[in-house]
Amino acid sequence: MKKILFISLLVFIISSCKKEDDSLFNISLLSTSPISLQEFQENIIVEIEFEHSEGFMGFYDPDYLSLEVKDSRLTNADYYHLIPLNPPDNELEIKGIIQLEIDAPFILGSGNLETLFFTMRIQDREGEWSNDISTPLISVSR
Questions:
Q1: Buried/exposed 10-22: b ≥16 CB within 10 Å, e otherwise
Q2: CA dist list (Å): 85 to 52, 60, 92, 123
Q3: Average pLDDT estimate for 32-43
Q4: Is residue 58 in a domain?
Q5: For the domain that residue 29 is a member of, what is the CATH number?
Q6: Per-chain mean pLDDT for the chain
Q7: 15 lies in a domain?
Q8: What is the pTM of this model?
Q9: What is the arithmetic mean of pLDDT over 14-18?
């Protein structure tokens, strides 16, 4: 109990001690499930925690794709739209969790087992990218 209280207090202190002119845009991986599956059978659920000190995440234009998800086996990434969380022309710090569902992977080669991982990042309305995060290795079998 003391450990949880200490960690909560430490998080509060760290989040309260930010410089006024520093912009914070950070994402972190909370969970990935499942990490071992049969091809075409299960979608992969990835939980991403985000924090943006000015709230500039998400775009009002639904055609603007700001979430990048790259399969380690492929050259090109897939992109998805994120809706804005702040009203237009407002700067409010936002924190939250995105639950991303990735379609069931399949084996690209001729073998019976492949491993892969996904790398993700988010672009804000200022054109800045968050840090990259990667899932653990995911095993896909036939």
A1: eeeeeeeeeeeee
A2: 11, 10, 9, 14
A3: 95
A4: yes
A5: 2.60.40.10
A6: 86
A7: no
A8: 0.79
A9: 48
As a whole number of angstroms, the distance between CA 20 and CA 70 comes to: 34
At residue 100 the predicted structure's pLDDT band, cuts being 50, 70 and 90, is: very high
* Alpha carbon distances (Å) from 68 to 91, 127, 130: 24, 13, 10
Task: With respect to residue 8, please indicate whether it lies within any of the assigned structural domains.
Answer: no
The secondary structure element, H or E, covering residue 108 is none
Q: Structurally, how many domains does the chain consist of?
A: 1
Tokens of 94: 């936002």
127: its two tokens:
């054109």
Q: How far apart, in whole angstroms, are the C-alpha atoms of residue 37 and residue 100?
A: 17
Amino acid (1-letter code) at residue 73:
R
- Residue span of the structural domain in which 54 resides: 21-141
